[in-house]
Amino acid sequence: MIVLAFDFALFLEKLILIAVVIFGSLGVALYTTFAERKVAAILQDRRGPNRAGPFGLLQPFADGLKLVFKEEIIPNTSNKTLFIMGPGLAMTAALMTSAVLPWGNKVELFDRTIALQIADVNIGMLYVFAVVSMGVYGIMIGGWASNNKFSLMAALRGASQAISYELAMGLSLIALVMVTGSLSLKTIVEQQMLPGHLWNIAYQPLGFLLFLVCAFAECNRTPFDLPEAENELNFGYHQEYSSMKLGFYLFAEYVNMFISSAIMATIYFGGYDIPFLDESKISPNIAAILGIGALMTKIIIFIFVFMWVRWTIPRFRYDQLMNLGWKKMVPLALANMLLTGAIILWLQGK
Amino acid sequence: MALTNRSVAIDRSPMTFVESLYLPSIFKGMGITFSHIFKKKPTINYPEQTRPFSPVFRGLHVLNRDEEGRENCTACGLCAVACPAEAITMEAAERLPGEENLYREEKYAAKYEINMLRCIFCGLCEEACPKDAIYLSETFAPANFARKGFIYGKDDLLIPNKNTEPEAYAKAKGLNQ
Amino acid sequence: MGTTQLLFWLLSALSIFSAMMVLISKNPVHSVLWLVLVFFTISGHYILLNAQFLFIVNLIVYAGAIMVLFLFVIMLMNLNKDAEPQKSIWMKLAGAISGGSLLLIFVSVVRSASEMQSKQALLKTGNIGLIDQLGKTLFSEYVIPFEISSVLFLSAMVGAVAIGKKH
Fold first, then answer.
1. What's the rounded Cα separation, in Å, for the pair A80 and A74?
2. Structural domain span for residue A206
3. pLDDT at A316 exceeding the cut of 50
4. What CATH topology corresponds to B61-173?
5. How many helices (H) and strands (E) does chain A have?
6. pLDDT in tens, A164-215
């Protein structure tokens, strides 16, 4: 009787893939902090960090080391278990999404065909949605466990914001699912790669816009960064945090940004599809590498858009946030869903 | 009553639906920030590049020497009297025989100190000096970890001798850069 | 005992333990967080039953939305030991007796149900929990109950709005 019977090679392959994806996400997030400062500087006619290493490229490591070596302070009146759990939860939720994303097509290595996706589940889109809705626990638990009024206010704001914008996000995703007819992210990408089939942005422009706005809100990025509003809540939910726990919170935001850019690129912009190129004509390994490059380019463009918006628009007021979420986004998403359904029915009837 | 012709009446009418989506104004703002990518950056990379000072800039003090490399200062104390911040102190000494190549006149400053934390770089010492001995240069006092380091003595202030140490003199003048 | 069974026992033990912790915890916030863990373990059981759609919907709806709202409300209330209402011993006794009799009824119903006898839990088989199967079943066999429940939700929403409008 074999207790744990599985394909050992597959296990190893997936383990390596998971390690690559997680460390890749962390590395990208590391350099996103650098890019954020650089982009902010360039948009404000400044130079940005340029002292640590050539062009300031070692700056993120300097920042990270500084955070690691800072004194770690846990407030006496805080709830210690939850205080420590908060940043970990935020980071875990941020990293978990990458499990279902297809990072590229297959590669052939050592007589094996390796799919560049950790798990191709048939509910990929819903999985992403579920993990995103978990992300708010990190903020809420951290904010509550700090035992500080400002942190609690920020945590409550974060929770209400996340719940409000999840609704519009779900509705815009439903419209997309109506078009694709599948919840698997791999299938969605493959559909967009078919000749004669445009990227989903062509079929769902309004849906994409709604999803983009909701992604900003879910990542707590400006103009929706109310949970960490410096001027009214001091520092928001991570006010009591120091050292690498603070680093985890700050870092989780960048990982979230990377992952949501990857999701948008995957479901609306063809994922690893290279426009005007028939991937089946070139060898699969080269196609896979080119595909990863294409996906990364799209992700970088989205990350730039995130930063560009951050350094352009001021923060929303709380009532503006709620008005936008419930009175504009949700009705628009519903209208988009109904319109999509009607058009699909009309096309089927023809 | 309008004080200037630039005043604009604020429109407080409720937003239209398109306005309330915030999108048009967001795109307008993003266009503005994007155009700043291509603008020239006014930043000067300080230690590598320095801002050109005007000839009348009043920076760190220099004690001057004459053509033969002798110190100009006679420790008359007029600079110390003129100093509004009372940053200058000095001690005079008499020139001994055989020191004619070091000091121009019979009396010289044995000790000459300027407290750079007190100094306001007004330049009144420069104006008061009858012997052209003190000048304000075009550099400023560098940072230091201790307050003691800001009391500049004669060895910090005196310009290197043109004849005996020409390299240091050229460096102090900024000629070899 | 294969991997699936191992996982089943692990998840069951964890879910019963965390369900008990929900009741035992003094701090209501801890209770809510243990409840979230209960939902996670139950979702794990759905995966073992090959019901991926139910797994993810359970997570989205319960762990992701309802529990966040619970947490939201509990965090807003100032719950501490001083403000805790003190119940008399008779009230506690009455509660224990009524709760216990309810438990007895449940257990007897489950035990006597003829359908449940001599049946084993399905593991890794069956496809009713997959999204296309579930959708087809819901919209063909159970279309009327489905629509009625949606109308019920709509009326609940309208009722909530009507109550909120009064003030």
1. 7
2. 63-94+120-273+285-349
3. yes
4. Alpha-Beta Plaits (3.30.70)
5. 13, 2
6. 888 888 889 888 888 888 888 888 888 888 777 788 888 888 889 999 988 8
Give whole-number Cα distances, B111 to A322, B155, B169, C95, in Å. 73, 10, 21, 95
Pair of tokens at residue B6: 């630039």
Partners of B89 in the β-ladder: B113
For chain C, report the end-to-end CA distance as a whole number of angstroms: 61
Residues in chain C: 167
User: Chain A within 8 Å of B28 (Cβ-Cβ)?
Assistant: no
Q: Would you say A211 and A300 are in contact if contact means Cβ atoms under 8 Å apart? A: no
3-state secondary structure of B108: strand
Asked if the Cβ–Cβ distance from C72 to A126 is below 8 Å, we say no
User: Can you say how many angstroms the Cα of residue C78 is from the centroid of all Cα atoms in its chain?
Assistant: 26
Please tell me the distance from the alpha carbon of residue C24 to that of residue A179, in angstroms, as a whole number: 48
Domain count, chain A: 1
B176 pLDDT tier (thresholds 50, 70, 90): very low
Task: Give the count of beta carbons closer than 10 Å to the beta carbon of residue C45.
Answer: 19
Task: Determine the pLDDT at residue C6.
Answer: 83
**pLDDT tens by residue, A261-278:** 988 888 888 878 777 776
Domain boundaries, chain B: 61-173
Residue of C nearest to A163 (CA): C65
The b/e string for A7-20 (b: 16+ C-beta within 10 A; e otherwise) is: eeeeeebbeebeee
Cα distance between residue B61 and residue B135, in whole Å: 6
Sign of CA dihedral C126, C132, C136, C139: positive
A20 neighbors A107 (Cβ within 8 angstroms): no
CA distances from A168 to A207, A318, C141 (A): 10, 17, 30
The two structure tokens encoding residue B1: 């009553």
Q: Is the peptide bond before C85 cis (omega within 30 degrees of 0)?
A: no
Within chain A, what is the greatest distance between any pair of CA atoms?
Answer: 69
Residue A306: how many CA atoms within 13 Å on its side-chain side? 33
pTM (2 decimals)? 0.79
Spell out which residues of chain A touch residue B27, defining contact as CB-CB under 8 Å. none
Distance from C-alpha of A290 to C-alpha of A279, rounded to nearest angstrom: 9
The set of residues, in sequence order, having a beta carbon less than 8 Å from that of B105 and lying 6+ positions away, is B74, B95, B131
- For testing contact with chain B, the best of A210, A301, A313 (most B CBs within 10 A): A313
A52 belongs to a structural domain: no
Of C52, C65, C75, the CB nearest to A133: C65
Is B touching C (3+ C-beta pairs, cut-off 8 A)?
no
Structure tokens at A315: 């923060």
CATH code for the domain defined by C3-80+87-129: 1.20.120.1200
Tokens found for residue C52: 């991926």
Strand partners, C5: none
Nearest to C71 among A127, A134, A140 (CB): A140
Residue A187's contacts (CB-CB under 8 Å, 6 or more residues apart) are: A180
Task: Spell out the residues 6+ positions from residue A344 whose beta carbon is closer than 8 angstroms to its own.
Answer: A178, A179
Q: Do A308 and B42 touch (CB under 8 A)?
A: no
**Which tokens in the block code for residue A305?**
């858009």
pLDDT tens, A57-113?
A: 888 888 888 888 988 888 888 788 888 888 888 888 888 888 888 887 777 777 777
Q: Is A5 domain-assigned?
A: no
pLDDT score for B173: 67
For A311, the closest chain B residue by CA position comes to B33
Distance separating alpha carbons of residues A137 and B20, to the nearest angstrom: 31
Q: How far apart are CA C122 and CA C107, in angstroms?
A: 21
CB A116 within 8 A of CB A68: no
